[in-house]
């Protein structure tokens, strides 16, 4: 069975969206060509940075970052990186380096714990202490 008809996110044309296809055939071919262009450029200019590549090829920053994350430039022997949005360290995927990611996760976790604690306290206040004791009792199995 053929895939569902969907609008191509690039050109808006209707196309059969088989699993794994993100865009219509035409745009896919065009993207492949652009990726090849970007790969060739990076291979010829291994020291180039993303803005330079965007300027000199048809590639977009988003596309290049995806290609970095997929290890596409390592395949041609170039370790292309871009900067962590927080500290500027060279990274190859995501928005932040491993250190900043760990720090962010700690922050998020801390915030979540605070929220849970607050919610529990509010729940307790709402129910009153007598109810709470009863509930604890019934929960025990
Ligand atoms: Zn298209
Ligand atoms: Zn960082």
What does this structure look like?
This protein is mostly helical and 141 residues long. It has helices at residues 25-44, 50-56, 61-69, 98-127, 129-139, and strands spanning 4-7, 14-17, 82-83, 90-91. The chain folds into 2 domains: 1-80, no CATH class; 96-141. The strands form 2 sheets. A two-stranded antiparallel ribbon has the order 1-2. The termini are far apart. The mean pLDDT is 89. One zinc ion (ZN) binds next to helix 1.
In short:
This protein has helices at 25-44, 50-56, 61-69, 98-127, 129-139; strands at 4-7, 14-17, 82-83, 90-91. The protein is mainly α. The protein has two domains: 1-80, no CATH class; 96-141.
Helical residue percent band: 40-55%
Sheet-strand content, in percent, reads 5-15%
Supply the number of structural domains: 2
Low-confidence stretches: none
* Secondary structure tally, helices: 5
Oligomer: single chain
Based on Cα principal axes, name the global outline: flat
Radius of gyration: 25 Å
Largest sheet: 2 strands, antiparallel
Instruction: Provide the list of bound ligands, each named once.
Output: zinc ion
Structural class: mainly alpha
The count of DSSP E runs of length 2 or more, i.e. the number of strands, is 4
